[in-house]
Automatic annotation (TrEMBL):
Protein name, UniProt field: Histidine kinase
Keyword terms, alphabetized: Kinase, Membrane, Transferase, Transmembrane, Transmembrane helix
Species of provenance: Candidatus Scatomorpha intestinavium
GO CC list: membrane
InterPro entries listed in its UniProt record: Bact_2-comp_sensor_kinase, Sig_transdc_His_kin_internal
Record keyword Transmembrane helix present: yes
GO molecular function: phosphorelay sensor kinase activity
Domain Signal transduction histidine kinase internal region: 362-432
Spans through the membrane: 20-41, 274-294
Protein's UniProt keywords contain Plastid: no
Amino acid sequence: MTAKPNRYFLNLRIYRRTFLVYLLIVMLLITGVFAALAMLARNMGLRFFSSEANSSYMLLEQQLTHVSSSIDGLFVRLYATSSLREDFFHFFSSTPSEYTAYRLENPYAAESYLDECSSLVSETDFCITHILYDSGERIADMEYSREGYSRWRSITAAEAEELTSGSLTVVREVESAGSVTFVIDPAGLVYDYYCTGGAAAAALDVGGKLTVVGDTGWQQDVDWPGLVSEGSPEPYFTREGGGVFYSAHSSSLFGYTLVSAAPWGEYMNMPLRAALIIGLAVAAGFAVVTVFYARKFSKDSVFIQEILLSMSRAESSEFVPVEIGSRRDEYAMIASNLNSLYEHLQALIEQRYKLTISQQRAEIQRLSAQLNPHFLYNTLESIRLRAMKEGDAHLAEATGSLGSLYRSIVKTEPVITIGKELEIARKYLDLMCFLDEDSFIYHIDVPEEALAIPTPKIWMQPIIENFFKHDFRDTDELKVVVISGSELQEPEAAPSAGRGRGFALEFMSNLGHVSGEGLAELNAAFGGRGSDQEPSGGIGLRSVWYRLQLFYSGRVSMSIENNAPSGVTLRICIYEEVTGENVPPADS
C-alpha cells in the first residue's frame, strides 16, 4: 500500500507554534463573543420578564379600578332609588328570617339589594369574596364563592377583622348609618394575572400580611419578606438573582406591594437560542478563516511530504514523479531534479503493464475455449430426439425450448428488440410450465408498436425468475404470470428527459407480497439514474434497473407495488426521446 502525504501541516514544526498561537487567540475571541451574547440574552430575558410583569400589574390595577367603579355605581343606584335603599336597610337590619318575611310581604318590590350585590360580584368576575355591613351594633356578612354561591350571617368584630386582614378592601359610608366593606380576594387576582406560566410565583403584601401564590416547588429559599420590604419604598424594580427574575410593584391607589418571580429559563429560551445561532455563526466565520489559512499552510506541507515520500518510495524501487504544478520555488527545483531521475524508468513501467495485460487476455481466452457451446447444443438435441422417439412430447418440447433459450442467450447480439426479448422470456416461461406441470400458466399481451423498440438483451427473464424465487416458492397453488404492454396515452414524466410519450410494460404475479419496508427500499432504489458501478450480488431487480438506465440514458422509470388481494406488479415505462428548447437537460 502506497503511503500518501499527510495533509496535517501541524506535523511540521515550522508551522506548529505559529498556528497554535493563532488558535489560542481565536478561542479567546470566540469565548468573549459567547460571554457577551450570554449577557445580552440574560438582559433580553429580563426585559421580557419585566414587560410581562408590568403588563400583569396594569391588568391588576385596571381590574381593581373596575371593581371600585362598580362599587361606586352600586351606591349611586342605592342613593338614587328609594325602594332599593329601603331594601338595603331591611336587609342589613334584619335577621335572615326577618328579611325573608319582609320580601314575602312585599312580593312586588322591584328592587332587591341582594340581587344588586349578586350582579356586582358577577360583574367583577367574583373577585369580591365578602360584603360586610357594620351598623355599629352588629356586623352582617355576605360571603360569595367563585362559583356564585352566597351565604348571609352575623359575625363578631374579631371575625370581621380576620376577614379583612391581608385582603384588599373598599369601604363606603352609608348616610351616617354605618359602613359597607367590600373584601376583594387578592390571591385569586394575583394568580390569574401573574401565575399563567408553568413556574411563576408571586407574593402580595397587604397591611403587613404576606400571601404567596403560584408554583411553590422551586422558591422555598426566596426571601419574600425582604423583597417586599425592598420594593415598598420604591414604586418599581426588576432584577435577577440566583437564576430567578424578580419584579416588585407598589400601588399607591390600593395600598399593596406585590413581588413576582419566575425562573429565568422560562424567559431565556428564545434569547439563548438567538444568541446560540449568532455565536455559532461567528464561530463558523472563524472556522472558515481558519480553514482558509490552514489550506494555505498545507500546500507547502503537502509538497514537502510528497518529496519525502517520493524519495522513500525510491528506496523500494517505486519511482513516482512529484507533481510540481505552478510552483517556482526551491522545493520545485528539488522535485524537478528528482523527476528527471525517474523519467528513464517510465518506458520499463509501461512495458511491464502491457505485458501483464497481454497475459491476462491470453488466460481469459484459454478459459473460454474450455467450454464448447456446440457440445451442449448437440447433447440437448439428442435428448429431444430420444424423447420424441419414446413418445414423450412434453419432454421433447421442454428440451427444445431449453436449447433454443441457451442459443438465444449465447448467440444473440447484445442489443435486440422488445419482440425478441419477449420470445426469450416466452421460452423461459414454457420451461417453467414444464417444470410446474399444471400449476402454472402465463399470458403475454404487448402491442405490436412496442415490439420494435430496441432494448438490451436478457432483462425480462430475471424479473420472471424473481417471481418463482420469491412469490411462487413452496406453494402448490395455481401460479399466474401476466406480461402486458400499453401506450402511454397521457405523457408521463421521464426522470431525465422532460415529458414524452412511450410504452409501459407490466409484469404481474398472482401470489406473493412485498413488505412495506421492502417496497420503500426498492422504489427508492428505482428513483434515481443509478450509480456508475453495477450493483453486486448477482442478477436481480436492481441490476435490471441499472442496465435499463444505462441503455436508455435515463428515459425509463421503474416501480413495484403489491396487488390486491395478493401478487406483485412491476411497472417499467420506456419514454420516447424528446427534443425541443423547453426540454430540461438530463441529470448529470
